[in-house]
Amino acid sequence: MPRASLDQGGETRSRLLLRHVVAAWLLCWRAGRLPAAGYLLITVVSGLLPAATTWFTKFVVDDLAAARTDGVLTWAACLAAVGLIAGVLPHLGAFLQNELARRLDRLMQDGLYSTINRFQGLSRFEDPEFRNDVSMAQQASGGAMGPVTTGLFDTARNAIALVSLLGTLSVLSPVMAGLVTMAAVPALIARLSLSRRRVGMLAGVSSATRRQVFYSLLMTDVRSAKETRLFGLGDFLRERMLGELAVVQAGERRLDRREARTQSLLAFLSTLVAGAGLLWAVRAAVNGTLSVGDVTAFVAAVTGTQSALAGLVDNVAMAHQALLVFGYHDKVLSLPDDLPSAPGTASETLPALRHGIELRDVWFRYDDSHPWVLNGLDLTIPKGSSVAVVGLNGAGKSTLIKLLCRFYDPTRGVILWDGIDIRDVPPQELRRRMGVLFQDYMCYDLTAAENIGVGALESMEDRPGLKEAARRADVDTTVEGLPRGYDTLLSRIFADPADEDPQSGVVLSGGQWQRLALARTLLRDQRDLLILDEPSAGLDAEAEYEIHHRLRKHRVDRTSLLVSHRLGAVREAQMIVVLEGGRIVEQGTHDELMVAGRGYARLFAIQAEGYRGTDESAVASA
Ligand SMILES: Nc1ncnc2c1ncn2[C@@H]1O[C@H](COP(=O)(O)OP(=O)(O)OP(=O)(O)O)[C@@H](O)[C@H]1O
């Protein structure tokens, strides 16, 4: 089983666990001082109750046996009061416990997702180990964290109960106290080992769990529903999901079997010790060494001690397990930044672009085991110029954009912004200066206004600004025509079922979504660099012409980078760059490239011919 011990930076397992205990308690305290203090108080009082019950019972029984009537009622009243407290405290405790768990849950989720948001690159999100760690950390943020709060508090309560009961038992029989304690040691060791195995198993099946979720999402998500139905993938996906579930359950079953064996053995051992103790106590009472009250107290103390010890072992094991899971949360939270700046060079801000952006001998591959995607790329994008990048599928166009946005750092070479290495400024600073439309843009299940507004959160409430961006992307009339205009929810899955207006959730067409995504980008049009990756792929011919016409006007005097397979759309660019196999193979204006008569001219002729008809001679002549 992989990485159950979670040794980070060579730290020993016990030190790591101790650090997690301290971190969990501090977190718990931060989450809610009042419920934590209240629960702690209840824990201490509840811990003392079993011993108090034992002693008060002994006094009542002894007084009754000796026919002493003067104090017996007081002892009985004390016993009743203890019973009353014991009856009420668990409910109060449960409320505080739930409240604490809720607050802790919120704090942990906040921490986890703030950390995830802190990672500015994309590589971590493509790393299966990171995904597994996050999925384990998500478990720590949910209900599974209960044992760290309740487990640790309950451990304290059971420890208090145990100490007081052991005190009682050792007064009556030190040998028995030792025996009962010793019998708990193997139980503790076995349970700790089981909890370690369980977390190891959970981590080991984490990929299978993620795949199981993936298959089940494919069966329920509206976006995949078309293909799953058209291709009849339902049974295929269901079987795959069940296959992954079987892997997860096989791991659980193996562990449950081992747990059942171990627990039965331990239960047998503790019953044996209790039975032997009972025989000894009854014999001692017959011999007159113990009173009747002593026997009652002895039996109660043995049972109480055993159950407190079992509870303690249980709590320690559960807390141990939860702490191991918490370790993943801690691990994710302590991950360093994924795109660190070179030491001593970092600058907090990036000035506005004055001269241009230069890619100097940029080499890039997604992973050491992957082939090179960019092979020593040299490209200058002068300020105020419009540059177009064209090339066949897989040539590296989108990768180039991802590098410009600093989602990855070049494996070799540099990208300079007015001579500043972009690795020396925070990625957020760089992105603040850009407007980008990705090829695989997002369609948010939000309102139309929000779908545009997410492009620049500070403009979310600026309705005229949103409308202007929509107008430039030629989508304002479409949005105005929606049942609730800009406030129409662009999703049917989150529409309120109680809402009587059947139009409250609307689904846009592919081209309308694309224009909305373009509006989102144009909301940032005052930024220094505008990047458009296939901005018109989903548009009809008329709309494409219209959008490109608008964009051309819009890009005048703005620094822009346009990626498109439609060569008619890029011909106005001041510089066209042809990428092939991660290298620039041609560069120039449309006219220059046509005169050169190489790959660009050939592709242009093929596309032009496609629009004109099938006159092969035109293609051949190009
Ligand atoms: N996240 C990734 N991890 C690993 N390889 C990737 C990743 N993204 C892209 N690639 C690989 O990098 C190469 C270039 O991909 P890229 O998306 O940059 O091409 P493109 O020129 O934009 O293609 P298209 O015209 O099809 O959009 C491809 O071989 C692709 O398989």
Characterization of the model:
This is ABC transporter ATP-binding protein. It comes from Streptomyces achmelvichensis. Keywords: ATP-binding, Nucleotide-binding. The chain has 622 residues and is α/β, with parallel strands linked by helices. It folds into three domains: 16-205 and 244-333, ABC transporter type 1, transmembrane domain (ABC transporter transmembrane region fold), CATH 1.20.1560.10; 353-433 and 530-592, Rossmann fold (3-Layer(aba) Sandwich), CATH 3.40.50.300; 440-526, P-loop containing nucleotide triphosphate hydrolases (Rossmann fold), CATH 3.40.50. The protein contains 21 helices and ten strands. The protein is elongated. The model is unreliable at 1-7 and 617-622 (pLDDT under 50). Residues 126, 366, 370, 373, 391, 393-399, 439 line the site of adenosine-5'-triphosphate (ATP).
Low-pLDDT residue spans: 1-7, 617-622
Heteromolecules bound:
adenosine-5'-triphosphate
Mean pLDDT: 85
Counted up, domains total 3
Number of helices: 21
CATH class term of the largest domain: Mainly Alpha
Organism: Streptomyces achmelvichensis
Keywords: ATP-binding, Nucleotide-binding
Protein name: ABC transporter ATP-binding protein
